[in-house]
Design goal:
19% of the residues lie in helices and 18% in strands. By secondary structure, the chain is an alpha+beta fold. Strands 2-1-3 form a three-stranded antiparallel beta sheet, with no helix packed on it. A hairpin with a 4-residue loop joins strand 1 and strand 2. The protein binds zinc ion (ZN).
Length: 73
Amino acid sequence: MSVIDTVKEILEASTQNPNRGDSVSESKGAYWCHDCQERILDVDVEGEDAPDCPACDDEMTFERSAGSTGCAC
Ligand SMILES: [Zn+2]
């Protein structure tokens, strides 16, 4: 077996099994209304704007879920 065949096999194996984990939209946090304890996940909200609380109609505040990196202090 030649080296080239081995390299080919490795390349084919890697293209057949693309290991991309970024296709799933992942929640980065959630919108909260602290008065009502209402919570809506960001992935459930269409667009970039904060939704209104379904209970009191106030604008909800966005909070990143713990563990999702990036301290913006
Ligand atoms: Zn509310």
